[in-house]
Amino acid sequence: MTLAAANQVLTVAQMVAAEERLMAPENPNATDVHALMQRAGRGAADYVWRMAAGAPEGHGVTVLCGPGNNGGDGYVIAEAIRERGGQVQVVVAREPGTDAARRAASLYRGPTTSADDARGWILVDCLFGSGLNRALSGELDAMLAGLARRHHRAVAIDVPSGVNSDTGERLAANLPHYAMCIALGAWKRAHLLMPAMASWDMARLVDIGAGREPGGAVRVERPRLSRPAADAHKYRRGLVAVIGGAMPGAAMLASRAAAHAGAGYVKLLARETSSAPDWLVASETGDGDLAAALADDRIAALLAGPGLGRDDNARARLNAALASGRRMVLDADALMLLDGPVPPGSILTPHEGELAQLERHFGLDSAAAKPERASALARASGAVIVAKGPDTVIAAPDGALAFAGPASSWLSVAGTGDVLAGLCAARLAVTRDPVRAAAEAVWLHAEAARLAGPAFDAGQLAEAVRPALQSCL
């Protein structure tokens, strides 16, 4: 599989452009729509075939075909399964409406059946796929839901027929749950956005040869990290200064995560440090002393927000940090208190409520989809935005976008955002690159959650950062 196919994330329009490039006469390896459909459909059929291997005798595959090219993919899938000796049938929801779909239908040699009569082991949803941008009709919604109930498992081809590919919005009142979603050509935004992402158990990608599409987003991948250089010292590796506030536990949790994510030195600047653990360098820094402490040129990244509080003292400490001009990670309370610009090279890590607050601060509209909201905030603030949640989007001021893969739902526990903030600060101190730092931190956060297993607390998540980082060396 090519790198472009493996990690790019495209809108519907970008995917159409990528396919047109594959078919352009000036392309030395030009193909046609029929060949692309065969490539996509037969690649998807490989996954369906393997899933059908455990079906009881007499329980086969039903392919639901719509009128467009997604339906054409369905006919190719059905024929590929029939050629292998599998039991397969097609339900024709609508007659083929494109030349490519009609040709694919003409090459299918197996049986068709009505939606009411179809039963089996696997339902393959090729009703509409990524082309749908309006709600399913009541008739088709009921047909899809009924077929899913009469089959043991459902598989969606490209995206489920009832999902907006660009926003992840559900367009079907009774959207089934799918065992697998098989993306064709490239990942689509819906594969990495809620609520769509919760509609299947696993997602797989079929490469059709599409190259890197200009302007396309990317999927966050396992970073390639390296051990400190042989002559490294703590300051060269990166000094992270954490601004402590009213709730010291959150700042210490973020500090622990930063230490485990590769920072050479983590220093807590707090008004009271008696509860700091032995491993953490903690400096009692009153509001009047903070500016002087932040003047240390060895500081590679600041972190403000975890446990900061929202009173006047917290605001004063945040403003001192902002006035230092150093690259920063702003999280939690700092995002709610922010009332001015942020230093260049900074990272903001808002959850949904904090994102809405930042949009109000910068005069932005909250009505768009999450990727557009994150991008608009990145442009307005000049910072890299990590719009976190069950789906996480990273947006840069230059328009670059990255989507995180699905992470453990056990992350929905207090303190995990503090851990992510510490990871962002550590990677920013190490790399000096906010986009790279954000992507590395988001991946390490998800991997630490996977390694921590079920029902962890935030402290256990911070401890799991070490083996997560080790897996990248």
Please provide a written account of the structure.
The structure is a single chain. The protein is of the alpha/beta class. It has two domains: 3-219, YjeF N-terminal domain (Rossmann fold), CATH 3.40.50.10260; 234-470, UDP-N-acetylmuramoyl-L-alanine:D-glutamate ligase, CATH 3.40.1190.20. It contains 16 helices and 19 strands.
Question: What distinguishing features does this structure have?
Answer:
473 residues; alpha/beta; Rossmann fold; UDP-N-acetylmuramoyl-L-alanine:D-glutamate ligase; twelve-stranded mixed beta sheet; seven-stranded parallel beta sheet; 16 helices; elongated
Layout of strands and helices, then pairs:
Blueprint lengths: L2 H5 E3 L1 H12 L9 H20 L8 E5 L3 H15 L4 E5 L6 H8 L5 E2 L6 E7 L11 H12 L1 E7 L20 E7 L2 E2 L11 E7 L10 E3 L14 H4 L1 E5 L4 H13 L4 E6 L10 E4 L2 H8 L4 E6 L7 H12 L4 E3 L2 H5 L9 E2 L3 H11 L7 H12 L2 E4 L5 E3 L5 E3 L12 H16 L2 H19 L5 H13 L3
Parallel strand pairs: 1-8, 2-3, 2-5, 3-4, 5-6, 6-7, 7-9, 10-19, 11-12, 11-14, 12-13, 14-15, 15-16, 16-17
Antiparallel strand pairs: 1-10, 17-18, 18-19
| Percent helix | 25-40%
Rg over alpha carbons: 25 Å
Shape, please?
elongated
| Proportion of residues in extended strands | 15-25%
CATH homology superfamily of the largest domain: Ribokinase
Separation of termini? 23 Å
**Uncertain spans, ≥5 residues at pLDDT below 50?**
none
Strand order of the largest sheet: 8-1-10-19-18-17-16-15-14-11-12-13
Q: What is the mean predicted local confidence, pLDDT? A: 95
Number of helices: 16
Structural class determined from secondary elements: alpha/beta
* Biggest beta-sheet profile: 12 strands, mixed
- Count of strand segments: 19
Give the number of domains.
Answer: 2
CATH-derived topology of the largest domain = UDP-N-acetylmuramoyl-L-alanine:D-glutamate ligase
What's the CATH class of the largest domain, please? Alpha Beta
CATH-scheme architecture of the largest domain: 3-Layer(aba) Sandwich
